[in-house]
Amino acid sequence: MFRTMLSHARKHPSLIPLFVFVGCGGVGSILYALRVTMTSPEVAWDKKNNPDPWNKKSPNYQYKFYNETVDYKNLKKEGPDF
């Protein structure tokens, strides 16, 4: 497949930016999926030692990658400690 892409890129140089942007989009989506699985408190990889990882996070921990409406620095905890 990579050899076919190179042969098409040699014949039609205008396809090179398309291959670059599609490749960057694919790599970016894989990196974002890895970020979500490694840092999100909803995903528990070790259920034996830490069954509830969302309880260990502070109330001002920023769960989302970007949120323009919530200021995480001023949030206070509303529930009991477990």
TrEMBL record:
The chain crosses the membrane at residues 15-34. Coiled coil: none annotated. It is a single-pass membrane protein. The keyword Iron does not apply. InterPro entries: B12D. Keywords: Electron transport, Membrane, Mitochondrion, Mitochondrion inner membrane, Respiratory chain, Transmembrane, Transmembrane helix, Transport. GO terms for cellular component: mitochondrial inner membrane. The keyword Membrane applies. It is found in: Mitochondrion inner membrane. Belongs to the complex IV NDUFA4 subunit family. PANTHER family: CYTOCHROME C OXIDASE SUBUNIT NDUFA4, NADH-UBIQUINONE OXIDOREDUCTASE MLRQ SUBUNIT. This is Cytochrome c oxidase subunit NDUFA4. The lineage of its organism: Eukaryota, Metazoa, Chordata, Craniata, Vertebrata.
